[in-house]
From TrEMBL:
Single Gene Ontology MF annotation: DNA-binding transcription factor activity
Name the UniProt record assigns to this protein: Helix-turn-helix domain-containing protein
Alphabetized PROSITE patterns for the sequence: HTH_CROC1
GO cellular component: cytosol
Length: 116
């Protein structure tokens, strides 16, 4: 099973290491304990959105960039694990007939056409 917290931790660690920063520096800037940040990086703890935001701010990286990298790695991990797309996702979604779909534009009456 692929653990999201592990992928997130790997991405955060790489971001920190690319910058040549220590756990101590980032934990101080994010105002989180060094031990907790270490556990997040190792995938042992799940970061709340608030904590993730603080870590991203401390690393001066957008959370969307971190999440995009996590998403890319998740896709690769799923492919490597041979996880298939569920058939239900490949089935077409039924669309109701046009006459059953309510119109957002009010129908004009013959009176409206004459008045115009």
């Amino acid at each position: 099973m692929i653990l999201l917290r592990r992928l997130l931790g790997d991405v955060l660690r790489r971001q920190r290491q690319r910058q040549g920063r220590t756990l101590r520096e980032v934990s101080a800037a994010a105002r989180v304990s060094l031990g907790y940040l270490s556990e997040v990086e190792r995938g042992q703890k799940e970061a709340s959105s608030e904590l993730l935001s603080a870590i991203c701010d401390a690393l001066d990286v957008r959370m969307s960039e971190v999440m995009r990298e996590v998403s890319d790695e998740l896709s690769l991990a799923e492919l490597a694990a041979g996880e298939a797309v569920r058939p239900a996702l490949l089935e077409p979604v039924p669309v109701p007939p046009a006459e059953r779909v309510p119109s957002l534009v009010p129908k004009s009456s013959a009176m409206d056409v004459v008045a115009a």
